[in-house]
Write a structure and sequence with these properties.
Mean pLDDT: 88
Strand content: 25-35%
Largest sheet: 8 strands, mixed
CATH class of one domain: Alpha Beta
CATH topology of one domain: D-Amino Acid Oxidase, Chain A, domain 2
Number of strands: 25
CATH architecture of one domain: 2-Layer Sandwich
Length: 473
Amino acid sequence: MSTIWDTETGRQIRPLSGDVKCDAVVVGGGLCGVLTAYKLKCAGLHTVLLEAKRIGGGQSAGTTAKITLCHDEMLSHIENSFGTDSALAYAECEMFSIDEYERIVKEENIQCSFKRLPAYLYSLYGERRLMREFDTARRCSLDCEITRETELPFEVALALKFDRQAQFDPINFMKGILHGFEIYENTRALYIDGNKVVCDGGSVFAKHVVVATNYPFEREIRNLFPVKLHREMAHVCTFGGYMALEGMYIGTDGGYNYRSFGSDLIVSGESHVSGKGNGGAYERIRKSTLSHFRGTTVGQSWSAEDCKSLDGIPYVGQIGTPKGKVYVATGFGTWGMTTSMTAANLVCDLICGRKNACEKLYSPSRLKMNSSADSLTDSVQRAVEGVVLSRFKETKETSDIPKDFGMIVRYKGKKSAVYKDKNGELHVSEAYCPHMRCQLSWNDDDKTWDCPCHGSRFDFDGNLISGPSEKSI
């Protein structure tokens, strides 16, 4: 996946070969995993970080890198579901995370384009929902104001302005804290056995095991989450030739998200459940942006897959397995930058025996039905459709496939995932995801096969791009 961020760390980090012992092992070399390893190292723990591919080369590379508390209408949602004290705890933890980024950047002298600036939560069509979010924000003592004046080249119905938010280059930030702990790239963790993480090149023995992969990889852990997590796809495009925005903008009711990075404008949106897209997402973003931001030129485009919990709040904390206990951090939704720091702080506090305001709110074992019922129903329905109903769907023949397109068709008497390239050559794979045997869907925007149940992705030849599947099709 090619994005605006340079994912080359400039270092050749070897894979694990043999067994090692440590105080803590962190599985997952994205922003959350790197921050967690850094925090544990700073707490005096001998820490090992494991990454299946390259540090920062996964979902963290697909971010738009806004470090902000503007998480849609999350504050009012939490207040309604869990009470004002929980909304206050969420606000305090997330604002502390923004400050913590600034502290680390200064302390480590990291060149990552870190910048404090306001963030705007805006609505195109109404005021009621944002007014409710504003009321909660004020009860949480946040610096927030109502406005209808923005620098966007179109009118908004209402906007909430939050001061002292931030943006940065996440990969350069990670490069700046990759020190003081052991790192092994191209090392896939296979399973956890008590205090041992078994990898394809050896094992890591640790007192504390932290799973900071986008979707929990290990079967004993993962089996708690198939109906508690789902994946959503967001699409991103960059544009050149527009003056730098002085703020960041997050749309709440169909509006796109905007921020600047140097001379580029980053625009994101067109989100949908993984495997449920209808195509044309990039074209819609380009058409809208070119019409509003006059004189811009089209740059890069990519997609990112976000892991979402039933109630929208991350799952971070200790979790029991039959042979031991581990810590998990997942379900960040579209707010992985701020929440990665919050999760790293929380996991480090739990391991070190310190109090943390978000421990109860973020608990992986929570299930509050008044905030989760609809999402739980949708999750179960997707699993049923993917695993059961797909077996009975009518399939077509390879002759029905247009060029440069993929379809589930009957090929040599077997239902198959078939992509027909621009030259008419067929690329044939199995029709089902190896994770839980859900039928795959064709993603025409990215030319990939996506799993609508849990978000595994494969290229048009069936090679694994991202899990939770652990193998290609």
